[in-house]
Amino acid sequence: MTITTTTLTRAAGVAAVVGGLLYLGVQINHPHLDLDFISTTEWKVRQSMKALFAVLSLAGITGMYLRQVKRTGVLGLIGYLVLALGFVFMVSIEVAGAVVLPTIAGTSPGYVTDVLAVAVPGGHAAGDLGLMQSLINLDGMLYLAGGFLFGIALFRARILARWAAALLAVGAVATLAIPLLPQVNFRLFAIPTGVALVGLGYSLWRDQRTPAGRPLPDAVSSRLDPAGAK
């Protein structure tokens, strides 16, 4: 198989679709975060799905950015870099959650409980989490700012589905309302982002499947061009 720019871009579209579906799927019937849950196989599976979501989404937004690099300008570059860094940090956090937390839950239950507490937007730790607290906070800010800026840039570029680009921006900003709405399941706020990634990924994949239109010959010029006469 010949690797071409079109092939890689279509693959990025598929990655975004799968990543979005994983993000939506992992929210379904998600158990409460506590010490009992993180010792289960389900915890490891869900954490692995979240890490895979971040990796696939990173590949997806890279394809989206490269497809529209000339149209998105400086805003697109900033939005892409911020959101990409957010996904990189997210991978490290989710992998640590899957591998490290279950290992130390028995010896440091207070620390693990605090990490689970701040994993929920608006949650607070009772003790000192060290750099883990800073990493989680920074990832949240990057994810929010990057999603908003990149969504706006994609919307302005007018190449991929604009409704999905707008939903990405709105979904990122909507997470700010989570601490203000404690009675609402915060996992519902993940739906806009998941749907946006699916929509953008499909739009990117479809865009690369559409053959470039061939320019139609100018009938008038053909008639006036002596070389074209038979």
From TrEMBL:
Entry keyword Transmembrane: yes
Keyword check for Methyltransferase: no
Spans through the membrane: 7-28, 48-66, 78-101, 140-157, 164-182, 188-205
UniProt keyword annotations, A-Z: Membrane, Transmembrane, Transmembrane helix
Name this polypeptide is given: DUF4386 family protein
Organism: Pengzhenrongella frigida
